Amino acid sequence: MENNSSEPVSRNYFRYLVFVLILVQIVDSYSTSFPTLVPNSIINEFLSGFTNPESIFAFVIALASVGMYFCAFNTYLSDRIGRKIMLAVTVFGMVLVAILINFSTSILDFTIYLFFLWFFTRSDVWMIYIGEEAPKEKRAFWTNIILIFGLAGAILAPIVRSQLITETTQNWRGITWIVIIVGIPLGLLILFTLKEPVIYIDMKKELDSKERIISLRENISGIFKSSNGTQIKVCLIISFIFGMNSIFRNLVVRSVSLSPYLTQDQISLMMLIGVVAVYMAVILIGTLADKFGRLPLLYFFSVLIPIARVMFALVAFQPFLTFPLTVIFTSMSEFGYWGGWITLSIVILELVPTEARGSGSGLKSFFGAFGITVGFLSTSVFTLFFNLSISFVILGLFTIITLPLVYKYLNETKKIDMSEISKLKR
Questions:
Q1: pLDDT category of residue 208 using cuts at 50, 70 and 90
Q2: pLDDT digits (tens, 9 = 90+) for 300-323
Q3: What whole-number distance in Å separates Cα of residue 215 and Cα of residue 209?
């Protein structure tokens, strides 16, 4: 099987690699879903005595989101010491955080552990891996195959929640045990059975022959000076905007929990259906991105988000068909958010040269994390005056800005050969 390098990859090994990366994405999507499933439980256990607990919780999440700022360093290390080692580090990191969360006794503990959880789950080293090993004409297809099967973790999470968090029980800590059970053997599989991507090995040989260590600062500077520098900058702005809008998926459970027309069982089902909507977005990307391109999908997903947020605010707190209508517009918001974020991730990886691809992915995560921080800090202020649904609408309207940015500055990337992207300018 031909990949982005001149050397072929064994078909059997490639299938095995896809299988392992699916397992990584299952653990990652499960871990990423955890904070979105427990805000009500956290508020009830740690913030029940405070005025405006939603405002305090939003501020706590904003603090924890700083952990994502360090993803740039995490993915930079994947350029320096290898994709395989850093992939294993992210898996073992998620396992360690899952263990520590079980010992949370205060909102401070939870904030610290959430900080580290987001540091490991936002790295997306697996996406660099498959981007470098997959055939160039099937890059989006294989990325989305991993996402489709990997989202089993996101489906499993609300199912586990429905068993552990009910109208009478609040065993939110038990949700973390799936990560521990699956993550430990998975990390060992990565260390002892995977190989480095051929493209990465070729790049390392070239750099080693020059006997020069390239710093993170040089990598980032080189990215912005590359021939795709302007496009990359625009992608980072869009990452920031999408980051602001992760507020919805992190606090929608708390928001609907305040509706007198929805039960905890309905909320768990709503979150499960939301994951199905993400599946649909991934399938759409896998089906259309390689055929019609990345940019039409970015337009489509960006338009859906503000529409879904406005409709959610209108239907979630009224008595007529509350559950089905809330499910529809919650799912539409998830469909738009994750579809846009995944498409943008593919575009950025296709714009950045191999020797800085990890740093480029880290930059995307950094700007997304900065957006998350701004989104939560804004919400902590908004909720002093409005309910959460109004905050969702205000931040959702910012995604309209992505439309002129994509139209004016971005070029289609579907036919780019990742091994032939221009070298960095030092």
A1: low
A2: 999 999 999 999 999 999 998 999
A3: 16
Helical residues (DSSP H) of 194-246, grouped into ranges = 198-209, 216-225, 229-244
pLDDT tens per residue across span 407-416: 999 988 877 7
How many other CB atoms are found less than 10 A from the CB of residue 23?
22
- Specify the pLDDT at position 213: 52
pTM for this prediction: 0.74
Strands (E), 41-196: none
Rounded to the nearest angstrom, the gap between the alpha carbon of residue 87 and the centroid of all alpha carbons in its chain is 15
What does the buried/exposed string (b/e) look like for 254-277 if buried means 16 or more CB atoms within 10 Å of the residue's CB? bbbbebebbebebbbbbbbbbbeb
By CB neighbour count within 10 A (0-12 exposed, 13-18 middle, 19+ buried), where does 165 fall?
buried
Cβ(392)–Cβ(309) below 8 Å: yes
Q: For residue 110, which of 50, 158, 165, 47 has the smallest C-alpha distance?
A: 47
Q: Alpha helices, DSSP H only, in 293-409?
A: 295-315, 322-351, 357-382, 388-396, 402-409
List pLDDT tens digits, range 349-383. 888 876 677 677 778 878 988 998 899 899 988 98
Q: Find residue 170's DSSP bridge partners.
A: 165
Distance separating alpha carbons of residues 244 and 236, to the nearest angstrom = 13
- Which residues are 165's β-sheet partners? 170
Domains in the chain, ordered, with CATH?
A: 11-420 (1.20.1250.20)
Tokens of 210: 């020059």
* Tokens 């605010």 sit on residue: 313
pLDDT value at residue 395: 95
Q: How far is residue 250's CA from residue 253's CA, in Å, rounded to a whole number?
A: 7
Distances (CA, A) of 6 to 9, 14, 83, 353, 419: 10, 15, 19, 16, 9
CB atoms within 10 A of CB 234: 18
